[in-house]
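Our consortium's second objective concerns turning raw sequence data into structural hypotheses that experimental partners can test. To show how far this objective has progressed, the report includes one record in full. It was chosen at random from the queue rather than selected for favorable results. The single chain below, 185 residues long, was entered without modification.
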Amino acid sequence: MHWIFFAFLLFIPSMVPAMDPSGIGEGLTLIELAAPEAREMREYLGLGSNPTFTMADIGARVVIVEIFSMYCPYCQREAPRVNRFHELLRKPGTPGADVRLMGIGAGNTPFEVDFFRTAYGISFPLFPDGDFAIHKAIGEVKTPYFICLARSKGGAFQVIFSRPGGIGDPKAFLEMILEQTENRR
């Protein structure tokens, strides 16, 4: 009889729909971050010379933010796919040319973020969130978590989707982002 109870407990998670709360990430647009020191990272994000920036300052039509943690085994396993996704965005002539990718290390210090960057060959900007301030502002999501922001007609960023877990196939993920972006215009 106990095995029936345990089998039921294993079945329950598959009955729960994927988390995609519309409000997650809304607070992200107001958060101020230290601008990257590296010139190429500033240029990639389209930032000027100010020492800090908000999402509104990023010079792109779409920004994807990965919430990760150096200690998250899922983030570590996902890193090669996210890197391939970033390579797709950087490829000349790709439809993702106006999409930028950045990561925020939930609970991670600058040292831990740099360690993650080096260990997994990350070439897009990563930012520390050592005190979990950003993580708390967006609802304390599980890692990895992806938030996609797109500029509205008025120029402000709006969350067009958010989701936990990996990106899956990088090309399919880009196609989904582009489709979601076009549906919101």
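The partners drew two points from this record. The first strand starts at residue 33 and ends at 34. Residues 1-22 have pLDDT under 50 and may be disordered. Both points have been shared with the crystallography group to help prioritize constructs.
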